[in-house]
Amino acid sequence: MTSNLQKILNLVQGKRLFIQTHDFPDPDAIASAFGLQKLLFYLGVDSHIVYKGKISRISATKMIEMFNIKLINYLDVPEMTKNDVIINVDSQVNNANIIELPPQKVACIDHHPTTVPCEEYKFKDVRIVGSCSSIIADYFIQNNDIVKLYPHTATALLYGLQMDTDNFRRGIKSFDIEIFGYLHKLADQNMLNELHNNQLEISDLDAYRMAINTVKLYNNIGFASIDFACVDGLIAAVSEFILSINKVDFSVVYSKRPDGLKFSIRSKKTNLNAGQITSTALDGIGSGGGHAAMAGGFIPIDNLNKINFDINEEIQNRFANAILFCQRLEDILNGKI
Q1: Per-residue confidence (pLDDT) for residue 18, from 0 to 100
Q2: What pTM value is reported for the model?
Q3: CB within 8 A of 294, min separation 6: which ones?
């Protein structure tokens, strides 16, 4: 057994264990939690997958149905206490996209850069790779002498990897390619095809229609607003759609919610770091961050009410200025200025 897996077992054995994803979990978060749950189960440790929010994207709900994955909304969990423990997957506490729960946060397995460190974690495995599913698959590979990766679990992990990297077009590393090769040999291709062919619902078209009607191009940046509340996954899908427009290298899509504006940002250029740009653009009025290729953000309603001019123009100016600032900073660090 590898040292990382042994460390995790030492932290959770004899405890009531929860595997927590980020709020509104996507296929990568679900696959990661499911894969870790299976891995620990084979080693004699039971766990419950918990989340906050609503799982309404067809890609996630179809996946849960096909693999018979049991996710529990945290509100439906009998009293959580400090005697219980949590492993965060595809997420880290102190971020805006994950609710704080009472149990001890003993471990974190993630592929996002750390923003605000958590002193509670006794173990962290954070690798800047294409998907968290790749990391969980690696635990199976490194411990294949004591645990077996069955096709059912391999298919879920491969789907999570494919979805989070947009079929290997975003944030992919050589590590992910190696993991893909391993999982592909085991995965059920019929299940994968069915999952990939069922990703859009009729009701989603309203969000796409609104984005098409509001899209604006500013140099190589595509902006679009959705004047009603959308779940995170749908906003992200629309942002991917805007990024696919010719000459758009950076997309900013935001949805109006009762409590503020929710953002999804995508980048196809290595010199346009979505996480850094979003954090800079929303500084002072909201929060944001993420990967080089994808990021999220939020402006609370109270801060929106303080803006006494056109919010769309403010957002466009902030992101345009943030891009210029981050590019100039990169040039300075690289000695070009």
Answers
A1: 97
A2: 0.75
A3: 170, 171, 236, 264, 265, 266, 267, 274
